[in-house]
Amino acid sequence: MMLSPKNLHAYPKFWPHKKGLVPAPLLPMSRKEMDELGWDCCDIIIVTGDAYVDHPSFGMAIIGRLLESQGFRVGIISQPDWHSADAFRQLGKPSLFFAVASGNMDSMVNHYTAEKRPRSDDAYTAGAMSGKRPDRATTVYTQRAKEAYKGIPVIIGGIEASLRRIAQYDHWSQTIRRSILPDSKADLLLFGNAERAVVEVAHRVAAGEDIKQITDIRGTAYMRQGIPEGWTVLDSSEIDADKSLVHPQTDPYADTSAKDKQGCGDKNNQTKPSKIDPNQGAVQV
After folding, report:
1. β-pairing, 220-221 with 275-277?
2. pLDDT digits over 32-41, tens only?
3. For residue 128, what are the domain limits?
């Protein structure tokens, strides 16, 4: 049974202010910045393919500040070098989980035009420089985070994960790709506007709940070992097997003006001209 997340303020703060946690001027991106805040570790580390800008137009800033308001120590790894796992160790090991997103855009849309030509700039990178994130960034970042710290849960979200949570047609490879979950090896996927869901997940993981057992929150997707009891698998091609149920497609660009309009001399045109009686001021049809 899926549960609606609790009120955002229903949980007590994970690290109350009386224990020394105060809002950070900027969410830390290095061990030095963590030391200045007096943190020994981060509870949650957000990995993003965008440059870190502490503004509501950037998803990592919204999620990071929201989790901070719940009493969590949140760090940011922005546009890490994905060629090794070293960049994913720069803030140390998170006490709860990694939260990974490709950024404000799908990384493939960010990299290529509709004609599959490489873009020359990146609007979400300092100096508009291109090449600061990999193709299919969510998958790559998740795999590197798993490599950096084995056993630490990884949650994925954002537009790339949301739109690829189930099988989808991939324009870039001209194939039907499976869900991003088995490719990335992520433990949990949050789709859509996931502010409430991520707060629920964070508090439940902090309370000691195994992330693999968190399967009842709306707006989440996860891998199962088998088909749940009471569910059946339906081949989508069976739905259209009866062609009589499928409405014929109409051409939106077809010229039907000659068919729709009738000329004045058309014998089938039964419309009669109107006559005005000047004496009665009435219209006769």
Report:
1. unpaired
2. 999 999 999 9
3. 17-221
